[in-house]
Amino acid sequence: MQKPNISYLNECTTFRFIKEGFSDDEKWCVDQTFLLRLSPHGDVDKLKKQAEIVNEVHALDKHIPYVHDVGMVDDRAYMILDYVSGENGEVALPLKSEKEQYDIGSQVGKTLKRLHSVQAPAEHPKWEDTWRNRVESQAPRFTEIVNVNVHYECILPFIQDNLHLLKNRPSCVQHYDFHPGNILVEDNQFTGLIDMQKITYADPINEFYKMEYFNVPISRAYSKGVLDGYHDHQPIPPSFWELHRLYAAIHIVSAEVWGHEVDLNQREKFQRYTRFTLDQFENFKLLVPKWYTK
User: Fold this and answer.
1) Which is deepest, 84, 104, 110, 288, by most CB within 10 Å?
2) Number of domains, the chain
3) CATH code for the domain of 180
4) pLDDT of res. 108
5) Do 245 and 174 share a structural domain?
6) pLDDT in tens, 274-293
7) Contact, 102 vs 229, CB < 8 A?
8) Is the same domain home to 40 and 155?
């Protein structure tokens, strides 16, 4: 793998190619100081907009890496960020005690709270309209999946009965791909929230839509810590759980459609996570999932 020739990095001496991760981006650790991401597309304007948002939230919380440069090289768009040391949370968390997992989650929750304090521009599309359209577009495709998975029959009716909860919901900065693989841990401390390329504006409670799919199966203690830290260790209001439960249901629809139409290799895993989510909410009859109350 040949290192890219980027003027911002001309004075740097060590380039280490990074193999980890699920992104299509090519990644390099440079002088243990910078992370270079090279995107297969050439949409540099998109990266510049991402960089503006990332640096706005970096000013509020240093767990968010700072973006130093964005540009083009060899017909690919690149972004140069702070390199954050630490181990992938998906690997690190299961090796910790439950208290350590919970404490790390609490730290992460506080960072997400700061991230969500940045409001979307006034001209940003209404959240309710965006998500109603998403549900309407995916519902017919999900119905075909329900026809061969009868235990999914409760999902679409539940969503339709609760879409009114989206009315007048705010939009703020959101990581939008929140799971343990996108946090870094070192010496029992949360060191960084990474892979910011999906950063966008969304309902803050939507940030947690992957909890039952990708967070809780790795660590229930960590997941509980995230929500407790996010709420300053105060009682979590029913309004949060109502929306979280709705977003968990909508995510099932999206994940199952994706697993059946795009990524067939993930279908069986997604079905396992769907069954877990349905069990945690007892087919959405419970307001608070079992994993949190235990």
Assistant:
1) 104
2) 2
3) 3.90.1200.10
4) 98
5) yes
6) 999 999 999 999 999 999 99
7) no
8) no
